[in-house]
Every structure is written in C-alpha cells, then in structure tokens.
Amino acid sequence: VESDLKVGVGAWLGSSGPTTDAITEQATKAEALGFHSFWLPESHFSSENSVPAPLLLLAVAAAQTKTLFLGTSSFLLPIRNPIQMAEEISVLDQLSSGRVILGVGRGYQRQLFSAYGTQANNKRQVFEEALRKMISAWAGEPIEVEGKETDENMNSSYLFPLPFQRPHPPIWVAAFGSKAVSQAGRLGFPYLASPVETLSMLEAKYARHREAQEKYNHGVAKSVPVMRTIFVSRKTDQLNSIREKLDAETRLRADSPVIAIRTSADASIEDWAIIGEPAEVADKIELYRERLGVTHLIATRTRLSHLTSSELEGSLELLAEIVN
C-alpha cells in the first residue's frame, strides 16, 4: 500500500463501554503501531457503548499521545450551542498541539432531537448555521449576539483560546443521504463516507459531492476520507466465521434504515467491509484508492464486537504492517 495513504483506527467499545483505561490503552497502541489517527463516534441513549461526549474522551487520548491525530467521526452540531462547541474544540486542539480532525454531522434519531429540544425537520439549516458561527468565531470575528435585549453599548466578545491549527482544525462532513452529501460539497468541505455503504454507492456519492464542489467553485477536495469495517487475519476459519457473523447481523438488522441500504441491493459483506488475509486486504485498499481516490482510511471495529481484544489487536498489528 502506498505510503501517502493515512490510516486511522476507530476505538473499540467493548462491553464495559468507553472507559478511561480502554481509551488510553487503545490510543497508545494505535500510536505505537504508527497509525495516523484515532476516532470516536457520537451516540446517545443507545447502550452501555454510548459516546455522548467524544471530545472529553479524546482529551484523555490527547494526554497520553504525542503524534496521533484525534478525530470525531460525527460530532453532532444541531444539538449544541455553536460557541460552546467552538470553545471546546479550540481547547482540545490546543491541548493536543493541533491534532484534532473534526468530523461533523447532523444526527438522524428523532428521540435525540426531542431530548435536546431541537427540531429534526430543519436539522440541515441548523447544522449549517452552527458551522458558520463556529468558523466565524475561530477566524477571530466578534461573536454574533442575537435578540432584542442586545445592548448597543456592550463590548464585542471574541473566542479565546483560538484553535492551535489556523484558521481551524480540518472539518469533514459526515453524510449519508444525497442532500447531506450535496450540502457538504456546496459548503466546500470533504465528505466523510460512512462504513455501511457499498463501494459502488460511494462512487455515486463522491461524484455528487464533486459536482456540488465544482458548482460552487470550491475546487477538488484535498481529503477523501472513508470509514470501513476492517479485519485482517492469517486464519481462514476465523475470517469465514467473521464473514458469517457479519452477514447474519446485517440480515437480523435489515429493518434499520441504515442497514437496509446494504441489504436492499443484495450487497455481500465484501461490498462494504475489508476482510481477509494481509495480501487480500492490501489489494482491497488499493481498489478503494483507485476507484475513489481515498486519502484517509479509517478502520472501524464497531461491527466486530463479538471478537476479543486480543483478536482485534492482532488484526490491527497486521493492518499496520500493510499500511506502514
């Protein structure tokens, strides 16, 4: 695999959830193996594996690492105050000496929006406005004050600290639906592809993203990031077992709006996951580079929850040998 590909790993959230010890151990392991970045999702109210505050957990990882970039795969903007988000991201970027990659998203669970008192039907508009305010604050512009009670004599407020990376950390827009993909392109940000869509689906969505970027004169995206379920092993029986379990899980959860995307096209595991022996995995990674122009590959492990920590670490070690 060519050396200019940057490969990151997603945290493995075991039965004990995202504990401090687990995050520390996994982040330091990822850095020691030479991976580029370490990623956390955001999820609420779902299980013991929920990650409601990914920035706090990434601060733990930042304190224990030196070179590892720290990413959110989908930090949900519509449920938060944009200035508070801008401040907290700035603090994490300063704490890590400029190692934050900000993957941002909108969310899709209606119960999440209800719990946070926000409207699901205008989430794209709220997302875009929040991002605009954050970028303005990071640029050192006066923080916008809204409402009739604004005092004209009040001094302007400015964000402090500003991010370590100027003007701000890299922003990638996690998107699933076609409208969200087009929005990412229109705003001029890279599109972070989900781990559940097939390669052919991703080709169509990256084409849509490029089309929107060109239409709004943003040029070609410098980063083309993709998340994939990845497992590497030299044991044929283990690989067959993983394929069978993933296939069974996919069919079991076919009523999920996300999972149904795969099954509706009769997609096989090979269409959306990278699983195999080292040479096979290396070939598949090259295929993604050829067909999508991938610059950043993020190995997620959330769909491999039935495996032990030692099995997952063995896979990571083999992946590191392939890509480093």
From TrEMBL:
One function term, GO molecular function aspect: oxidoreductase activity, acting on paired donors, with incorporation or reduction of molecular oxygen
One annotated Gene Ontology cellular component of this protein: cytosol
Gene3D superfamilies the UniProt entry points to: Luciferase-like domain
Domain Luciferase-like: 9-295
Protein name (database record): Luciferase-like domain-containing protein
InterPro entries given in the database record: Bact_Lucif_Oxidored, Luciferase-like_dom, Luciferase-like_sf
Native source organism of the sequence: marine metagenome
